[in-house]
Amino acid sequence: EYRGLVKHTGGCHCGAVRFEVWASPDLHVFNCNCSICTKKQNRHFIVPASRFKLLKGADNLRTYTFNTHRAQHTFCKTCGVQSFYTPRSNPDGYGIAPHCLDEGTVRTIITEDINGKEWEKAMKEHKTIRDMSKP
């Protein structure tokens, strides 16, 4: 459906939450050092909302917010796994955890460190992150 993209599928540990996402087979993953990403080891890649589809488990999702409450940290209420969330940097998209994708569609992963401890400064200096959720 999307030129140059592949359909990845994934979900939480217990299988209650399942999704599909269209993204490159070569993922650009962010490794953020903000307080929550550090605690959860939240590494993620960003996609536009139009390329994400929740297949099942909406009723099993819970949301945690803090500070500005812009980031929506969704997780499965049964197993506690956050397989995707709505990032503060891209409220019009999703941050997808590559380790929650099913095997077979990821070719490579490139990881970029983001200084989430100084979030405003990092977002101002980063040239492309806010455009990653644009279709």
Automatic annotation (TrEMBL):
Residues 8-120 form the CENP-V/GFA domain. Belongs to the Gfa family. PROSITE patterns: CENP_V_GFA (PS51891). InterPro entries: CENP-V-like (IPR052355), CENP-V/GFA (IPR006913), Mss4-like_sf (IPR011057). One of its GO terms (molecular function) is carbon-sulfur lyase activity. This is CENPV protein. It comes from the Eukaryota. Keywords: Metal-binding, Zinc.
